[in-house]
Amino acid sequence: MAKRKASAAVEGGQQQAAKQQRKQRKQQVDAVEGDGPSSSGAVVIAGTAGGWKNKEKVLLLSSRGITYRFRHLMLDLGQLLPHGKRDAKLDTKSERGVINEVADMKGCTSVLYFEARKHKDLYLWLAKAPGGPSAKFHVTNVHTLEELKLSGNHLQGSRPVLSFDKNFDEQPHLQVLKEMLTQVGPRACLNPIKMFAGSFGGPVIYENPGYVSPNTIRAMLKRQQQGKYVSKVQSREGRKAHVAAHPLPRDELGDVFK
């Protein structure tokens, strides 16, 4: 009986100590939250050096109808983003505001949305959820890691940022160092289309005046091909009319060997 009372007292003391520790930890977190930034997606961790640690994540998802090359491009970019989180394909193409809700559920503050059109064209949305801004790009000249046979990401998980100033284009030894760098990621060209003040919509703050949609380019090429066919038919009809209007004179020696 005495042993049971002693064990119960020990368990009660442990529970009270754990409760006190949780209370102190909560007070520390509340104090840090009052001093740290209040942006969405930022997680406060007690016990760190600064008391606040930025844990923002990037959501990667695509639309229905994406091809295998475009999907591999998205996966290659996901390898370069260790803080990225992938989600299932989005069923709708008109209501892009749903992506903000998906990002909120996943705890992400940035979104990379790959939108495929007609199984030919790929558009990339870069957005800061849920308040914006956002930008839309047309992706061309896509080359994945498997196509280029690149060496891979040697610094996977390190989140490096590389930038070159003007000295790398002016000084000879820096030019050599710049050429010695090895490409480790996929290759693609991003043609900016529009930038919006909100996330996946809102007022337009920039529009590329020189952008031409792929549908317009295909229509122009089709009209050119149709023009070639029409000119060929017209030349054939003109030749027939010319032959009918200018018949050859009768050859006097044409019946000699008959």
UniProtKB/TrEMBL annotation:
Location relative to the cell: Nucleus, Nucleolus
GO CC annotations, alphabetized: nucleolus
GO biological process terms held by the UniProt record: ribosomal large subunit assembly; rRNA processing
Brix domain sequence ranges: 56-258
Keywords from the UniProt entry: Nucleus, Ribosome biogenesis
GO MF: rRNA binding
Transmembrane segments: none
PROSITE patterns: BRIX
SMART domains for this protein: Brix
Stretches for region Disordered: 1-38
UniProt similarity note: Belongs to the BRX1 family.
Protein name: Brix domain-containing protein
Organism: Chlorella variabilis
